[in-house]
Amino acid sequence: MKARRPVSRPAQSSIWMIGSDAALTYLIRRFAEQGGFRLDAKPAVPPLEAVREKQPAAILFPSIESMETAARWIEALAGHDHDVSILVCSSVTDQARARELGADACLLHPLTYEGFLSALSATRPSK
Predict the structure, then answer these.
(1) pLDDT digit string (tens) for 66-102?
(2) pLDDT tens digits for 2-13?
C-alpha cells in the first residue's frame, strides 16, 4: 500500500470548523491532523477580526444550511480581502449552491481523507 503524504504545511496551518457536530468534528480533526493541520472547532462564525489576526488556512462549514445561515458573514469576509479558503461538506447535487454561497471547494459525501486533501489542494495555488 502506498503511504499517504500530507499536504505541504502552509504558514497558515489551522482549519476552523464552524458548528457543533461532535462526530463530524472528530472525523475532520483526524483528517486535519493526518494532513499536518490543526482543527479548531468554533461553535459559531468568529468575528472577522479574529480571522484577520489568526489567518486560518481554511474555514469549513459542515453543511450547505450552515453556509446559508452565515451568508452575510461570508460576503463580509470576502469583502475584507482575507486570504482564507471556504470549504463545505456537501453532496454532489449541492456543489453549484455551495459555489453561489462562496465556497472555494466542497468535501463531498461520503467524506474521505482523499476528498479532504483534494478540497484543500483545490484551494491552494500551485507552485
Answers:
(1) 999 999 999 999 887 668 999 999 999 999 999 999 9
(2) 444 444 444 459
Locate 33 and state its grid cell: 491532523
Domains and CATH numbers, the chain: 14-122 (3.40.50.2300)
Q: Are 87 and 104 in contact (CB under 8 A)?
A: yes
**pTM metric for this prediction:** 0.86
pLDDT digits (tens, 9 = 90+) for 31-44: 999 999 999 999 99
Grid cell listed for 76: 463580509
Distance of CA 59 to the CA centre of its chain: 4
Cα–Cα distance measured from residue 30 to residue 84, given in angstroms and rounded to the nearest whole number: 21
Long-range contacts (CB closer than 8 Å, 24 or more residues apart) made by 78-86: 78/102, 80/48, 80/52, 82/48, 82/51, 82/52, 82/55, 83/55, 84/12, 84/51, 84/55, 84/56, 84/57, 84/58, 84/59, 85/57, 85/58, 85/59, 85/120, 85/123, 85/124, 86/58, 86/59, 86/61
